[in-house]
Amino acid sequence: MPRSMNRWTTAFVLGLLPAALLAVRLAGAADPSPAPNQLTDDEKKAGWKLLFDGKSFDGWHSFKRDDVLPGWQIKDGTLACVDPHNAGDIVTADKFDWFELSVDYNISEAGNSGIMFHVTNDGPAIWATGPEVQLEDNVKAADPIRCGWLYQLYQPPDDPQTGKPLDATKPVGEWNTMRILISPPPAKSEVDVNGVKYYDFVWNSDDFKARVAKSKFKKMAGFAKSDSGFIGLQGDHGAVAFRNIKLRPIPNDAPPK
Q1: What burial class does residue 152 get, using C-beta atoms within 10 Å of its C-beta: 0-12 exposed, 13-18 middle, 19+ buried?
Q2: 162 pLDDT more than 50
Q3: 25 CA to centre of own chain
């Protein structure tokens, strides 16, 4: 190759190098989020705790059992219900009273699941004592209670663009993030889906109790009676996977926000 051609080739490659390095930097900046099932330094300082390590069932067990039924598996860093016929509901080993909970979930087509809180062992099932934030495929699931609603108690307002209740969920196969804030009264509790606020309420306020009295839960003596309990994940209505399950305790004397 002529010497002039060598010089031209070298100059061309060197000219491309800064652009290539910039592309690498931009690619790194495009996804600043940490790996799944890990806490950032800021989250650790704020008091967040991981409830699922991505590797084991540590901290979880099937409701009223010491083990976890085989329908639940640790799969690709997720806590997954892969066989609803042999899974049932699982709960945390620890009890929590007031907290902020963040959970990523991925629901199957026509799937239905839920996140319960303040669950106790006093009922025959976790929903007999713990209120449920519904998880489901809003397109094909049969249950008319939609994703993010506090089952038969609270739901988001209508979206003026659709005339239907607000729906911030992503399609089946994509990860969604559910945020559940349970605050000591008279502070407001809140449920958000993918960063969109759905509704708020005051735990066991007169309004809350009036809604319970109009629901199917009025016949359940232990429903929403405890200010502390397990967090439960429902696993008998379809395949669903969870990750990034993390919780920040809220002191009982925290000022209302």
Answers
A1: middle
A2: yes
A3: 31
